[in-house]
Amino acid sequence: xxxxxxxxGRVSPSHVNAAVNNGFEIAAVCDIRDGNIDxxxxxxxxxxxxxxxxxxxxxxxxxxREVRPELxxxxxxxxxxxxxxxxxxxxxxxxxxxxxxxMSMADADAIVEAADRTGVVVSACHQNRFNKAVQEMxxxxxxxxxxxxxxxxxxxxxxxxxxxxxxxxxxxKWASDGGALMNQCIHGIDLLRWMCGDELVRVxxxxxxxxxxxxxxxxxxxxxxxxxxxxxxxxxxxxxxxQVDLEEHLSLFGEKGFVKLGGVSANDIDSWHFTDAPEEAKxxxxxxxxxxxxNGHASLFKxxxxxIAEGRAPYVDARAGRRALETVLAIYQSSFTGQPVTLPLGDxxxxxxxxxxxx
Length: 359
Description:
By secondary structure, this protein is of the alpha/beta class. It has helices at residues 12-21, 34-42, 48-51, 60-67, 81-90, 105-118, 132-142, 162-166, 180-183, 186-196, 296-310, 318-337; strands at residues 2-6, 25-30, 55-57, 71-74, 94-98, 122-125, 149-157, 200-208, 220-227, 232-238, 247-254, 257-262, 268-274, 341-342.
């Protein structure tokens, strides 16, 4: 499969590695800074002699039209995701979009509409759905082992200091990034909504910029989510942990069992108990990961390639990316207004909250 990458920043080696591990032809990469491409390849598993053969572009439109890849992945700064995605989709090219898929509901809706209209495969890059521990939880849920759900919870407790935000001028800004919930915690929020039934009806949230006064957006956020099926859930996300990425926990509680996932990116099984098999032992499962991105990119890329070949929807489609974005924006809206927010969410954008912590 002929593959091309748009954007060669912090997460881009995970995309290239996934493409390499799936045997894709890396036809081209695009970034406005040649040094970013060099650094990306240096951090990837691609042999230097192979990387040297890859065509380089500074204009992704030129790249897509000239190279005509079968699949493109977008790893640009968040505020540029939607524009690039809509171009690629309307060119009839399949695409994987890094999280968040957009920064506004209008742009997310446009991506979903374009995917439906053109029939190309569009996947939101929520790779943690492919974590082995997450898949174990999901399988138990789909088999009905939890019974009726009571509640769920996600906690993302990581660290991002000034040096992180100074690496790129788009970080921590409402228009181009958002804060801890939109950037670091959206994967956990995606998992929580997916597990709790997807149909979210009400959100009550509170956010703060406690320690990072040099960014625009939040460094901590908490929320209560209410779902149409009666399940309630909590979100806690922060980058205020001193110096270390402490944990990402995902818990789900039902009348017939409970599971708590842990590790730095929901990659471990901390607790596992079901009344239909109380002696079943999955506690202590640990998936080794190199970083907080986990190991799911290769599986997500493989699934997208399968979706293209088989003419089916990908495991994580554009609507999944839209739901994750909607959840974060609803938390922002609730914090901004001081009131609960009823879903579906209207035409809300991260830009709507500019100046929130300065007022």
